[in-house]
Amino acid sequence: MRINKILKIVVFLFLSFNANAEKEIIFPIAAASESNDSDFFFDALILSFNLIFNFDASLFKIVITSLKVSFSAVFISSLIAVPLGIIIALNKFIGKKILMIFLNTLMALPTVLIGLIMYGILNRQGLLGDFDLLYTQTAIVIGLCILIIPIILNLTISAIYNSDPRLAERCVLLGATQIQKILIYIGEVRFALMTGIITGYGRAIGEVGIAMMIGGNIEGYTRTMTTAIALETSKGYFEFALSLGVILLFIALIINVLLHYFQQK
Amino acid sequence: MKNLYKLKNIVFNYDNNSFINDLNLEIAESEITSVIGPNGSGKTTLLNILSFLNFPFSGSIFFNDTELKEDNIKRFRNKIGYVQQNPYLFRGTVYKNIEIGLKLNNINSQKRVYKIKKILSLLKIEHLTDRPANSLSSGEARKLALGQIIVLNPSVLIMDEPFSNLDKNSVTELEELIIFLNKELNKTVIFTTHDKIQAQKISSSIFSLIKGRVFSNHFVNLYKGKFDESVNRFDTGKQLISIYESKKNAEYVFIDPKQIVLSLEELDCSMQNRFHGRVIEISEGDYNVKLNIDIGENIQAIITHQAFNELKLSINMYVWVSFKSASIMIF
Description:
The structure holds 2 protein chains of 2 kinds. Chain A folds into 2 domains: about 1-55, no CATH class; about 70-235 and about 255-265, MetI-like fold, CATH 1.10.3720. Residues about 15-35 of chain A have low confidence and may be disordered. Chain A has helices spanning about 1-15, 20-35, 40-55, 55-90, 95-105, 110-120, 135-160, 165-175, 180-190, 190-205, 210-215, 225-235, 240-265. Chain A is globular. By secondary structure, chain A is an all-alpha fold. By secondary structure, chain B is of the alpha+beta class. Chain B folds into 2 domains: about 5-215, 3-Layer(aba) Sandwich (Rossmann fold); about 220-330, CATH 2.40.50.100. Chain B contains 8 helices and 21 strands. Chain B has helices spanning about 45-50, 75, 95-105, 110-120, 140-150, 170-185, 195-200, 305-310, and strands at about 5-15, 20-30, 30-35, 60-65, 65, 80-85, 155-160, 190-195, 205-210, 215, 220-225, 225-230, 235, 240, 250-255, 260-265, 275-285, 290-295, 300-305, 320-325, 330. A 6-stranded mixed β-sheet of chain B has the order 6-7-8-3-9-10, with helices on both faces. In chain B, strands 16-20-17-18-19 form a 5-stranded antiparallel β-sheet. In chain B, α3 (about 95-105) crosses α4 and α3 packs parallel to α5 (about 140-150). The model of chain B has no long low-confidence stretch (mean pLDDT about 90). Classes of the chains: A mainly alpha, B alpha+beta. The interface of A and B includes residues 172, 175, 180, 184 and 188 of A.
């Protein structure tokens, strides 16, 4: 029975790539819908593929919002964390060990806690209440930045620690200034740095606590893939949630392929 | 001749194994100076100090008569070009590797192209221009590292073991290049080597570095051995030398040739080291006479012309060689 369902999915995927597939795929889906309870998951999976390959507008609006906030957060975080990480790694200063412990602790920060603290700061009575940022995409981006800056920072620091120690001496001997040194390091250790950035992106795209608490899950505006999955599942619209899950899984796959690529370099 | 470097009582420890201990050194400007010594003697540490990469824990460095401090050291860094033994090469081509230093020094692109071409032809590596730096052989990589530095036109060129692992032709090429840089471009060149003959071939002054100490008269009266507790003397393998303090981990003793007393009869005195030996070599200089005497070990003594004439010394004559235990340096 299960093999039968898997075959159905394969046939469906094959038909989906056909331009006239829409009419033909109705039958397997309709058939699947009428099946018994044990086929619930596979039926939903087929329906989710239907949504994906038909480019369902509401589905892709959510995907785009997710990509937008996560890319923005990773871009901003990288601009801050990469140079800062290089500076921390290359310089000796008092309290460096304590800072490293603190940064490592921040890496394990629960997202709901960030959401909670940010809610306290961004709501009308909060410190930044006047800016009306709560339940906006900007709020999610800020929250995500707080989440992934420590990740990118830590991985940048360890990438620099693992880089060739002669590089630092070379920079000094060639008379590089602090800014030139950072740029040289970005160029020389770029693959290891990319690993940190992609890891940060993986954390941002799959995050739910921050997006839910300070994004507010507003349809068409702050609804991300993860908050939509949580909501649609509770509403019983499982196939919609599953289609987002499939896309999320696909993004995770791309991230891991990229990670693998950069780690091989 | 002007001194470019003057190092006074330099102390530097690094990872507890290579170290510089109370080092005093003067290096002349526009000359080729070499530092010879075995592995682990502190040669690279010394070069790191001379290239201002490391700052000593104590002591003072004078460069061009200016005392260097951690805050003014940056001003002099662009005068120094330091080619490390295994230098780091950047990602990208040979051309880009040479270009990076010029870019960091804000040289415009036209000048960059001109300078790089000149350096590539000087080093005879034009054919490698577009090759990725990580595909070069060790000899080619060494040339590239040298190119990266001399393109910046430093007045001092410091090289760590530049002749190691090079084939005969490359050694000759590098020797010619060093002489060219020194004679034609008036550069001060300092390099380390463990090959004494190599050093003598091209350098005008040679220093020996043993366990972080510098000796200008290289390897004269320097003996390796160990402290023998049973007789409370330092055993060089051929001779037992009485020393002032019992340093159990001592590896070397150095006897200053000027502290050695020569006599025809054995002296009845407090000097603990008295050896009977045969004169094997005499070289008369302008101000003093150097004598090499075989006392089991070959030892050099420096005496005045007056003393030499009074003793009427000649080759194969037997003399007594005496020196105080306290005059021996142990390390």
